[in-house]
C-alpha cells in the first residue's frame, strides 16, 4: 500500500461532524424515554452520557467503513 497511500480529506471532518451530531441528537431523544428517573436533570445527564458513548462508537465505525471502502476502491482500480 506504499505506492497508493490513501489520505484523509478535509471534507471528511465536516461530514463526520454532521453525521455524528445528527446521530447524537437522535440517540439523545430516543434514550430519554429509557432513563429510570423522574428528575429531568438526571434524565438529561444520563441520556446525554449514553448518547455520547454511542456516538463515539458510531464515529469509530464510520472511519473504519470509510478506510476499508477507500482501500477496496484502490485495489479494484489496480486491476
Q: How large a portion of the residues is in β-strands, by DSSP E? A: under 5%
Which class do the helix and strand fractions yield?
A: mainly alpha
Major beta sheet summary: none
| Domains, number | 1
Total number of helices: 2
Mean model confidence by pLDDT: 91
Give unreliable regions as ranges: none
Whole-number radius of gyration?
18 Å
Tally the beta strands: 0
Shape: elongated
Order of helices and strands: HH
> Helicity, in percent?
over 70%
Distance between the termini: 14 Å
Features:
79 residues; mainly alpha; 0% strand
Summarize the structure.
This protein is an all-alpha fold. It has one domain. The chain is built from two helices and no strands.
Account of the protein in words:
With 79 residues, the chain is mostly helical. It has one domain (10-78). Helix content is 78%, strand content 0%. The protein is built from two helices and no strands. The longest helix is centred in the last third of the chain and has 39 residues, at 40-78.
Q: What's the helix and strand layout?
A:
Blueprint: H1 10-32, H2 40-78
Amino acid at each position: 500500500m506504499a505506492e497508493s497511500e490513501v489520505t484523509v480529506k478535509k471534507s471528511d471532518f465536516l461530514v463526520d461532524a454532521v453525521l455524528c451530531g445528527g446521530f447524537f441528537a437522535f440517540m439523545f431523544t430516543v434514550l430519554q424515554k429509557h432513563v429510570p428517573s423522574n428528575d429531568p436533570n438526571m434524565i438529561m445527564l444520563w441520556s446525554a452520557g449514553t448518547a455520547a458513548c454511542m456516538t463515539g462508537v458510531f464515529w469509530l465505525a464510520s472511519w473504519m467503513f470509510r478506510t476499508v471502502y477507500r482501500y477496496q476502491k484502490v485495489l479494484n482500480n489496480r486491476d
